[in-house]
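Title: Comparing notes on inverse folding

I've been comparing how different people in this forum approach sequence design from structure. To keep things fair, I'm posting one structure and asking everyone to reply with a full sequence. Here's the target:
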């Protein structure tokens, strides 16, 4: 018979065990991760150890490879990612329940079932920058920083796999394929391609770095050897070749494809029709004669640099303005003066055009920015990085209301800001995803102690870093810079700033435009004398054309802005400027 003290001890232990059972179970689960994937590559794929981001892709859609099905939209499939360093041929990298995933956070939460599964490693290189930091980043290899298409990346053949997270099993995947190199585009009569090593960027990165451009030459370039031309930069995402220019009629055998975005059947044919129409107008008798270039400035963080100097990316603004542009003007008979240089673009290109005009006011004579990325960080999409505490949820004591990230013109949401950032976190840590939020961070942020960009907010929780936000404000918040420096730069910008955005922009980019317009309307000595315009119900990326639908106007940037450029030249060219040799 037990004493009372023994009974009390027994009861105490029983209660303690019952309380600890969930914790014990969790500990056991952590030590025994259950389902996991063992991923390796053979020497036939690569003979040297690899650094990079290892991705596991899981899909319910067998129409395409899983690596092409990850997006911020509702149609996205599943991805998990882990960093690997020095992974040797034949060595297995283990991806289990602790790997970060999107949209589902953990492999343990994937519903049991049959899936198409694929793995891929996005390769990193070790770079020793001039600022003393050594970083591991994916170099662009001609694809425009697309992890699923980057030459040299290893990937596996998709296979049907039964996944059951409750079972303790190891599924082996072999990275048996390598993405091949991309053949460079060929020159034609009208389209040329140039590439130059940038001293500024090479010095910064501690290795040869290059800038490229796709160049559209005017009709009559060869038959008017004494003509010198204005130059327009069409800013935007990485262009493999000069897009939207087609010398031949649309392919009669083209299989029509439906555009979910524009709700149009056969939109691929419309794209070809508009490209051929541009060719006919460009070579016709009345189109303004100028040189149009698309800059290739993909870098270790993104498919372009945002055309400004950056602590993390290097002096891309100076390299483009003072190295690449004069290089092209010299080779292709540009006028070579600030009054004869112009910029336009949409989205990323819209921000770049406006930013470069503001940062280099004497080097360019006009910027037309359509649907620009946030030009005022009080409306960094829907986040005020100065006043808000959390980027993912509204500041509230009692509610956890998610902040929206992507909508359609009816306001229906496809993604929250949190979801969009989680996708990037799955694809790459330390701002290395190649995604939109990460490149903003890489361009605008100071360098962290580890050599990578200081986060504007905690990628997991959304908590905003006010010190980083202050750095952004003073260096890259275009609205703040215009207001702060108007007395100095205003006289150089009068008549040069033109901004267009749809009021149903998918990424809420119209909000920042409202704030900048509020300031521009108040400018004096001088008045900004430009244009800010909106289109009701227009989504991303409306460019200022009220006469056409967004689906068509987005294909006609050159036709829409070229006459505006000529008008600007005729109004602002200095005495003695060449206004005749290129007007034939």
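Reply #1:
Here's my take.
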């Amino acid at each position: 018979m037990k004493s009372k003290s023994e009974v009390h001890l027994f009861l105490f232990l029983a209660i303690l065990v019952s309380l600890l059972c969930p914790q014990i179970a969790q500990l056991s689960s952590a030590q025994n991760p259950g389902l996991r994937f063992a991923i390796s590559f053979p020497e036939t794929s690569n003979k040297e150890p690899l650094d990079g981001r290892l991705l596991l892709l899981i899909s319910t859609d067998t129409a395409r490879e899983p690596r092409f099905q990850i997006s911020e939209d509702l149609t996205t499939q599943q991805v998990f990612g882990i960093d690997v360093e020095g992974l040797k041929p034949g060595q297995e990298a283990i991806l289990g329940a602790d790997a970060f995933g999107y949209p589902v956070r953990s492999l343990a939460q994937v519903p049991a079932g049959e899936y198409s599964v694929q793995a891929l490693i996005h390769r990193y290189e070790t770079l020793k920058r001039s600022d003393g930091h050594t970083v591991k980043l994916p170099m662009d290899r001609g694809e425009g920083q697309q992890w699923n298409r980057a030459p040299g990346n290893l990937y596996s053949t998709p296979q049907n796999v039964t996944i059951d997270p409750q079972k303790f099993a190891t599924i082996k995947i072999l990275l048996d394929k390598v993405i091949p190199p991309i053949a460079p585009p060929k020159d034609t009569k009208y389209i040329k391609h140039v590439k130059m090593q940038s001293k500024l960027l090479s010095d910064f990165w501690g290795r040869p770095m290059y800038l490229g451009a796709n160049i559209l030459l005017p009709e009559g370039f060869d038959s008017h050897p004494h003509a010198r031309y204005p130059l327009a930069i069409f800013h935007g995402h990485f262009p493999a070749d000069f897009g939207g220019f087609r010398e031949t009629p649309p392919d009669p055998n083209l299989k029509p494809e439906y555009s979910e975005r524009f709700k149009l059947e056969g939109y691929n044919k419309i794209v070809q029709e508009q490209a051929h129409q541009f060719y006919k107008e460009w070579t016709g008798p009345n189109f303004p004669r100028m040189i149009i270039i698309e800059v290739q400035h993909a870098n270790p963080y993104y498919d372009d640099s945002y055309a400004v100097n950056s602590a993390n990316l290097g002096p891309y603004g100076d390299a483009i303005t003072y190295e690449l542009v004069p290089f092209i003007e010299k080779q292709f008979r540009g006028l070579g003066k600030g009054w004869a240089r112009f910029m336009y673009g949409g989205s990323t290109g819209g921000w770049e055009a406006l930013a470069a005009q503001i940062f280099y006011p004497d080097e360019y004579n006009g910027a037309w920015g359509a649907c620009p990325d946030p030009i005022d960080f009080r409306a960094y999409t829907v986040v005020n990085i100065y006043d808000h505490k959390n980027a993912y949820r509204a500041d509230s004591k009692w509610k956890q209301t998610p902040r929206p990230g992507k909508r359609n013109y009816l306001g229906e949401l496809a993604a929250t800001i949190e979801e969009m950032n989680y996708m990037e976190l799955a694809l790459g840590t330390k701002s290395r995803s190649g995604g939109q939020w990460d490149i903003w961070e890489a361009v605008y942020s100071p360098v962290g102690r580890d050599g990578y960009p200081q986060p504007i907010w905690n990628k997991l929780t959304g908590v905003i870093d006010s010190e980083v936000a202050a750095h952004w404000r003073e260096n890259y918040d275009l609205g703040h810079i215009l207001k702060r420096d108007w007395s100095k730069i205003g006289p150089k910008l009068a008549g040069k700033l033109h901004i267009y955005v749809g009021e149903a922009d998918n990424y809420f980019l119209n909000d920042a435009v409202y704030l900048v317009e509020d300031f521009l309307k108040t400018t004096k000595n001088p008045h900004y004398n430009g244009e800010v315009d909106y289109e009701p119900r227009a989504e991303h990326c409306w460019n200022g054309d009220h006469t056409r639908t967004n689906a068509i106007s987005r294909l006609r940037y050159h036709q829409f802005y070229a006459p505006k450029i000529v008008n600007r030249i005729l109004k602002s060219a200095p005495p003695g400027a060449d206004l005749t040799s290129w007007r034939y």
